[in-house]
Amino acid sequence: MFKITVIIPVLNEQENIDILVDELNKYFKEQNDFSAEVIFVNDGSTDETLSKLKSANHFSYSCKIISFSKNFGSHAALRAGILKAEGDYITFIYADLQDPLSLIARMFHQMKEKKSEIVWAFRNSLDGKEKGAFFSGLYASMMRKYAVSNFPRKGFDVIMFHKKVKACLDQNVENNSSIFIQILSLGFRQSSIYYDKRARQFGKSKWTLSKKIKLLIDSFVAFSYAPIRLVSLVGMIFFILGILWTVYIIFRKIAFNDLVSGWPALTSVLMIGFGITNISLGIIAEYLWRTLDASRKRPVFIIDEMIEINKEEKVTYE
What is the pTM of this model? Predict the structure, then answer.
């Protein structure tokens, strides 16, 4: 029988843990096509999330609880889960259950039917008013145009992939990068399904504006040369405009001698010039910083504790 590993990153989700574990037990108890391993990755929670995970009754699936020493981010949590996964297939589900558990079986059957190594679950819509739709659409559009041409128009939250994809990811654990785009860029045979995303019932989303901005920067810096090309293009445009402006000034001076020197014009030119220079240096500095960060070889995550619980309630600690 095939085994599916389900990785669930959690951060201050104490309100959702009881419901989440109950839903997981009910769902996997009814499955006959595969066995399940669930890996909870506690990403530095400061509430009772970890203790509630430890005390929960995980009876219809084998379970691992990974606890980070601090908050490293959801993508680092997913990478840690992948590293410890033992299933033939691996997928991600989130603690708020906005993505229905039925996706697991649907993606599994899609993978077997289409003989795919990667299956994406694309959202149709979110019940009620969809938040962040503008950002998601802009992000997806820019990624398709400048970084990854096959980036989906509506983005993605859920994926299932074969253990051969896991082997590639384990060999290239990237910091300051998007795990989804890395998987997307690996190739392999891919297929997709669609689903309706549900509204969150408890707690608040941890997907803040600052994290969205970081993802945007990480995606472009890690997977695209577009920012550097933009710097070069802007430099060339302003160089050409500077030459044309110089020729124009010389012509007016010789032909009409009617130009009056003024500080406002000089100040405007300096402000624009220094602004463009600083933007350019900032983009270049992003690449230099990430090169430095990679050369240090600091860990993408640090596991403070790992607990394994099998269906017979045996607990081991690392």
Answer: 0.69
